Structure formats: C-alpha cells, structure tokens
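Standup, Tuesday
Yesterday: got the pipeline producing structure tokens again.
Today: sanity-check two examples.
Blockers: none.

Example 1:
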Amino acid sequence: MIKKWFFTQLFELNGHPVVAKQLRRFAMSPASRPLIQPFVKMYDLQMQEADQPLDSYKTLHDLFVRHLKEDARPIDASPNAFVSPCDGMLSVVDDLTEDSRFVVKDQSYSVSELLGSHHEAQNYVGGRVMIFYLSPQNYHRVHVPIDGMVRTSYTLGRDSAPVNELGLEYGKRPLTRNYRRVTRITQGKHALEHVMVGALNVNTIVQTNPRREVERGDEFGYFSFGSTVVLICPKDAVTLADDITGPVLMGQRIGYWNS
C-alpha cells in the first residue's frame, strides 16, 4: 500500500499541467541539445532510419519528433489492410461490455469516458480496443490505419500522467484523464475512433494532417515524448491477424477492415 501511495503521489505531481509546460519549454530550447547524445545512447535510437544526420537536431524535441527515411516503414498494400498507426507494443481487449467498459492493469475504463460521449460509445458495444504503447525508443509520429473520411477531431483532458506499466498500475486511470486527441474516421459502414493519449512530462499532441480524406499510412500527427495510441473499433469491423499482440511497426498489417 505504501508503494502504491508513493507512486500515485509522484505521478500526480509530475502529471500536473504546470510541470508539463516547464518541461516542454526546456525540451524545445537549445539548452536541451547536450542531452541529445546521451538520449540516443540510453534508448538505443535507430538513427540510421532517420531522414537527417544526428548533428542536424537542435533540440531534444526535434530529435524526438524526427521523420524517418521514406523506405523505413513500408505501408502494407493488401486490399482492405488495417495497419498499425505507430511503432509500439500492441495490446488488444476484445468484447467490450454492454456499457463499453474494458480493463487495463486492473483499472476499469469506459469508452464513453475516453471519447467524452456516452452516445457515441454505444456504437462500440461488443467491439474491441487496441492499445499501442510507445516507449522513448520508438518513432513518435502517428499515422492513419485505414483509408477513410475524418468526421470529427477534438481534444479532451488536461493531465500528463505516464502511461507505461508503472503509470497504468499506480496512476489514477491515466487513459481517460490525460490530454488526448479523439478522431473519428469512417470507411464503409463502420467508424473507427483514433485516440492519441499524451503522457508523462511534455504532453504535446500536434495534428499535422488537416485533410478530411485520408489514406492508410498518411501521417496524422506526432507526440512530444511519452505517448499511447488507442484504436476503438465496432463489433465485426476488424479481423485481426493471429497472435498480433506484441511489438509492431507503423505500416505493418495487423488485420483487415471489413468495410
């Protein structure tokens, strides 16, 4: 109990918007440049994939939101392919309950809380939630998993608690409290909720793609530092590949969209 209390208090303090704002300011300043080399070494960043040489990055933030070479993440071209929107560890929760609830690390969440809408959450009863956990090592730009039309895109929340294993276990339900961007994309008869959840420290989500018509693999936005992507699909909308959970790369086919 003492351990849980300690971590909870620590995460609540670090997740405060005032703290996040100060850390964001530092990461985007030239004062952060001396940390670039140690950051690359600590997290074993695969800089051979980056589209610029290491010495071209002026701030730690610039390094973190780096672009990759065009051939670093090929987009699966199979008809109706449903691709991973990012690099990360994928976890899948099937068969959402009648009130659209799901459990992560023994904490209960609801789709209505995540989306900020009880009405829209009803569309996902019996569906599934796919959670992509990004580590500091990962490429942190987020892409579109299907061809479709963007119907709505809005932000919710204000906190920036971590969404790694410790944060999910000891934090106070970070997936539905943190700052996040919720985007609804439709293709055929189904809609997909594409949720970018900000996390510890800088907590910035930038949408880089203003277009309404999008294609799988299109860049949608990026995170500044810690982050998680949640995809919410209605029942029977996606047929996932067998044993797809675990590490995935952006553009990798993880299933098929049943349009």
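Example 2:
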Amino acid sequence: MGDRNVLHDVTDATRRFIKLLDADQLEHAVRAVADDGLRHRWGYAPGTRPGLALGDLGRDQRKAVHGMLATVLSPHTYAQAATVMALEDVLDRQEGGHRDRHSGDYWTILFGTPDGDEPWGWRIEGHHLSVNVLVADGRVSATPFFLGANPARVTYRSRVVSQPLQLEEELARELLERMGPAARRLAVVSDLTPQDIRSSDSPRVVPSEPVGVTPAQLDKPAGELLVDLVRLYLDRLRHELADHEFARIDQERLHFSWEGSVRRGDGHYYRVQGPGLLIEYDNTFNEANHIHSVWRRPSHDFGDGLLSAGCDASRHAVALGNVRND
C-alpha cells in the first residue's frame, strides 16, 4: 500500500505540473527517458541547466515544482532543500552580487511523462541541490541525491541562526566520540582532506576499496550510531521509500572513514561505504563553512537498476513468447 501511495502522489504531482505548462514550456521541459547522456549529466555547481528555471515560471508553476519535490522528500528534508535554495540569495548578498546568484536558479527537467506503462522521471537541480527521480515498474528511484550549503552555518554572537545540514555533521562527530580511541584510530585514515567529495558529479561511480572502521570493530552503541548516520541519508526520502532502501543495506559490511581534523571549525570529510551504498560529506571550503553531501547507489543511480530489470523482464517475455510460437 505504501509504495502505491508514493507512486500515486509522485505521478499526480508531476501531472499537475505538466498541465500548467504551455506548448513552448513543454518543449523545453520534456526529454526522452532513453537519453542516458542527459539523464546522467547531473551536477551541483552553479550554472544553467536544461529544462525550465524556477525564476522563469509563474507562481502556480513554481508551487507545482515544490509539490513534486515534497512528494518524494521527507518533510524535514524538504525543509532542508527549501533552505538550500534560499541560501543562494544569502550567498549572493555576501559576494556583493558579482556572480548574480538567485533562488530562482533551479531547473526542472522531465524525462518522459507519466502516461502509460513506460518509465519516466524528472530532475530538480541547481547549486547545491540535485534530486534525480525515475519511476519504472511501479517503483521509485531517487539517487544521486545531493544536498549542500553555503554558508553552511550563519551565526549571531556565536549562536547558530541557520544550519540546514547540522545533523549530517553532528551525528558523524558523535560517532567518532562514541567509538573510543582504538576504533577512532582505524576510522581516521588521513590528516588531510580531499578537495571535494571524491565521486564528484561523475555519472558512474566505481567504489574504491572500503577503508576505515567496520561494525565488528565498534561496540554496540557506536555501531547503532553508524546505522543511524546511514539512516539519516536514506531518510531524506519519505518514509515508504526510505524503508525500502534501508532494507537493502548490509549493516555488517559498512565502513566509516574520516579525513582531516576532528577539531570543530577545521576542514573535514567522511565517507560511509557498503555494498550498493556510498555516502560522502565534506566541509572544507570557506574556512569549513561550505558543505557538500551526497548519497549514491553505485550501478543503480538514475534508476538504471529499475530500467535494466525492466529490459531483462521484457527480453524474458519475448523469449517465452517465441517458445510458445514455435
């Protein structure tokens, strides 16, 4: 029932958006789901994208885009995403406007439309936000899922006013503190941080050999915190989707690693890796006040796992048909 509810909500919200578009907007918004080159060309840097920009849409159309997001995201993550978009205006003000940033600089592109039984999907993306949705065979995929924040933290007299990705940092720090010195020496694999998340905006991720500490090397409270950290990223999706994704996780084969300083205010990076799972987080730019974070499913990003399963099923059906016809 839960999966059907999600499918109904996502489909209904997407149709509502499509009905609000005129012919010219539809032409710019819709591409073929089979255009893998475009579907896999995602990013989180500022810049224009294919599709329709929020700033060029009418009020009802913008609300419909937000409605699409809200059908896939959990309520707290929708609030994070809305805050990330609003930060573009804050950042523009900090920079004196010379890069002409604006909270309307987020694009929506559709891959196919929710009519019939063919796969379809959409991407909503701009600076520090990328949500990639594909629907096939009654199921919903939503990775890569990127959230970033700049400024990551706004303060007043050393008190936090805004920090949309606070839990992504705090849970990882709590895990480091809870695991104890011996396990921490295994978890902290470098004193230096990478320039950015290592997977970047690559269309394909080939995971490196996992490093760091494993659940078997942690006591029970620390092991539970590691699972909580993974769950935080999966819970970016509404609970029906997150529960389904969580059921895939092999909790015993997770690896957690940290790079950089463990002192607050210094640059740092962490990664959680397991079969079919990659989570990366870094906070290194702007004196450690600029976060990038991503959840990916190697070999299944962009709904490719659903698409390949559908192709396999179709080939199987054709083969059975041929047998019956002989």
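Quick observation on example 2: The CA atoms of residues 171 and 229 lie 6 Å apart. The longest helix spans residues 166-187.
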